[in-house]
Amino acid sequence: TTMEYRYLGKSGLMVSCLSLGGWVTYGGQVSPEVAQMCMKTAYDNGINFFDTAEVYSGGQCEIDMGVAIRKFGWKRSDLVISTKLFWGGKGPNDRGLSRKHIVEGTDASLKRLQLDYVDLLYAHRPDPDTPMEEIVRAFNFVIEQGKAFYWGTSEWSGQQICEAHAVAQRLNLIPPLMEQPQYNMFHRDRVEKEYLPLYKNFGMGATIWSPLASGLLSGKYNDGVPADSRLAIEDNAVMKRLRESLESEDGRVKISKVVQLGHLAQQLGCTTAQLSLAWCLKNPNLSSVITGASRPSQIEENVQALQVVPLLTEEVMEAIEAVLLNRPVL
Ligand code: NDP
Is 122 a catalytic residue? Predict the structure, then answer.
């Protein structure tokens, strides 16, 4: 498979349209060695963009991903590394988007990653308790210091992002370039509706997370929770909630839709995961689809989604809509 690279929003930076993140998995669910094997498989398949966050496994994700980046001697210019700030620890000033935490949090992340700079730095959530001017000034400062090249947001509302742009414009500072929202077949409204003016008016790019809804859209949970899957992790509150949600009415409806998507995938000669990822890749407003993987074979499978994109004709897309029944009303 030949990887496709897309501009990150209106910027001149190119990111692989499929990227790899470490949430839950690296520094947590799997050993450093498995994380390294996954990252190498991704790199060897043309993935240049790797995503982490200060909060992932309490910092261990950045450490393990940093070790992998060093180990293979990859050229720094061949990589796009991102991290995200918001939850940096227990202290009152270890969290949020104060100037203090943005500056100190960036330094702490770089240290864990063993890097001089990250390419992308995200505000992991909005912080209504910090003035927007303080937030924009702080990210601008970190970029001017050379510790990041671009900054962006994650799970901010369209309104909050507009406010950041207004502040940046007024003060002649660098505005956010990209958003990192959840996007998958079951979670569409923001990316397909709320953010439309952001792509158009600000040239923002979207780098989306959980394209498989944590694995649900691979079909692996159709017959229960496999012991070697993330939903089986006992001591993780988020995974526990997801596991329990499968038992709910909503969960059962979702699984029945995944089963139907599996039939469509079979007709196309691909896997359910590949169909779900290809469906995301069809969206031209996405700069990158951030995937996750607990083993190299998943990455090998997932990069093949690129070959499925051209198979998603209007007819197939309509067949998918007929299963999902959640097309946003524009
Ligand atoms: P996905 O929804 O793609 O889930 C990935 C998980 O699904 C894998 O770890 C694996 O878990 C399983 N999986 C992947 N491929 C396959 C396959 N082909 N067959 C079967 N199972 C498969 O993405 P994530 O939820 O991991 O999110 C991706 C990245 O997005 C994160 O790493 C992080 O960087 C970012 N993110 C950002 C957030 C934010 O707030 N900004 C929030 C969440 C994620 P397993 O093998 O354990 O079952």
Answer: no
Catalytic one of 26, 43, 56, 183: 56
- Whether the CB-CB separation of 35 and 68 falls below 8 Å is answered with yes
Using CA atoms, how far apart are residues 208 and 287, in angstroms rounded to an integer? 8
* pLDDT tens digits along 211-269: 999 999 999 999 999 999 999 999 999 999 999 999 999 999 999 999 999 999 999 99
At 24, give phi and psi (nearest 5°).
70, -40
Atom 42 in ligand 1: which residue has the minimum CA distance? Answer: 209
Residue closest to 320 by CA, chosen among 144, 199, 188, 138 = 188
Q: Where are the alpha helices (DSSP H) in the chain?
A: 32-44, 60-71, 99-113, 132-144, 158-171, 189, 196-202, 237-245, 249-268, 272-281, 296-303, 305-308, 314-324
Core vs surface per residue 246-262: b (16+ CB within 10 A) or e: beeeebeebbebbebbb
**273-329 tens-digit pLDDT:** 999 999 999 999 999 999 999 999 999 999 999 999 999 999 999 999 999 999 999
> Residue type for 294, please?
S
Local structure of residue 187 (DSSP, 8 states): B
Residue 105 alpha carbon to ligand 1 centre in Å: 24
Report the atom number in ligand 1 closest to the C-alpha of 271: 18
> Which one-letter amino acid corresponds to residue 319?
A
The Cα–Cα gap between 151 and 222 comes to: 38
Pick the residue whose CA is nearest to atom 18 on ligand 1: 298
Which atom of ligand 1 is nearest the CA belonging to 297? 18
Dihedrals φ, ψ of 50, to 5°?
-125, 135
Distances (CA, A) of 268 to 80, 113, 127, 225, 303: 33, 41, 44, 26, 16
Contact 28 CB / ligand 1 (< 6 Å): no
Pocket test for ligand 1, best of 156, 210, 275 (most atoms within 8 A of CB): 210
Measured by CA distance, the residue closest to atom 48 of ligand 1 is 229
